[in-house]
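Q: I have 50 residues here and want to know how they pack in 3D. Can you give me a structure?
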Amino acid sequence: MKTQQFQEISISTLCKRAGISRMAFYRNYDSKEAVLVDHFDHYVRRFMNY
């Protein structure tokens, strides 16, 4: 998101950058928004446990 706006980033681009297949992506996430939710949820849980 440093070089492209979130709306412009495709699932294919995310998969290529992460080194995973689209099948692996959709096995774990329904959308790219779900990736962000999962990422930030990790930090919120750490904060709440603190």
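Q: Anything worth noting?
A: Helices lie at 11-18, 22-28, 32-49. The radius of gyration is 13 Å.
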